[in-house]
Amino acid sequence: MIGLVGPNGAGKSTLLNLACGLITPTTGTIEVLGSRPAANPAHLAKVGFVAQDTPVYAELSVADHLKTGAKLNPAWDARLAQRRIEQIGLDPRQKAGRLSGGRRAQLALALAAAKRPELLIFDEPAAALDPLARRGFLENLMEFVTDLAAGAILSSHAIDDVERVCDYLIVLAESRVQLAGDVRDLMANHRRLTGSREALSKLPSGLDIIRADQTGHEGTVIVRTDGRRLDEGPWTAENLELDELVLAYMTRTSAVGSVPAATAQEAHR
């Protein structure tokens, strides 16, 4: 599960629409599962996509959606679709336009998963849901990914959602990858250091300072340590929360003009 985060306008939806083949690149190239996105019907069948507004056809019933899905997708799993519809308590006769936001999202998720894709792509699918519906959606999302043995990309502004379900993180800002890597590794390789201005001036050379805040004679810096704990020194070293790490890279971008912090290998991955 890959979490894709970044501010509004960072390029998240553009990237995901490129990956689905809904738009084509004006320059450069993109490959998904080894070929150009939406190159042919067989490739389309390998990718499931749930857009930000969890689109469904308002005038079609739940049952109509399942029938349409079966006709359009060669690997359609009717049992999976029916089982999930029953589990979330959807009435097959009800029109999708009369469903709540949470139930529309669940229907869209069931349709995407019943394709039995190799890759599921979610563009802010839970953005408009209340906390209870959001939790249910994320739980079902994780179940689908596990059952299908599929990869997934989740774009979200809610760092709590990303932390709950994702094991890999990409921070995108101003259309550039600022940070990418396994969540555990990223958390282990960043620290918050607090101390006097004089103490922080004695940091080891070669440290990548992501963010620095000064208040009078005291200061706080967030640094990329690449495995060094930095517990020995005239400062206090602490672990970060994930939202603090993400915010540090976002604010770094606005401060330094979109200089990518990720290594070339991370950006390629």
TrEMBL record:
Residue ranges constituting the ABC transporter domain according to the UniProt record: 2-199
InterPro entries documented for this protein: AAA+_ATPase, ABC_transporter-like_ATP-bd, ABC_Transporter_VariousFunc, P-loop_NTPase
Protein name per UniProt: ATP-binding cassette domain-containing protein
Pfam families in the cross-refs: ABC_tran
Keywords: ATP-binding, Nucleotide-binding, Transport
Keyword Transport: yes
MF GO annotations: ATP binding; ATP hydrolysis activity
Entry keyword Nucleotide-binding: yes
UniProt source species: Streptomyces sp. R39
Domain of life of the native organism: Bacteria
Gene3D superfamilies according to UniProt: P-loop containing nucleotide triphosphate hydrolases (3.40.50.300)
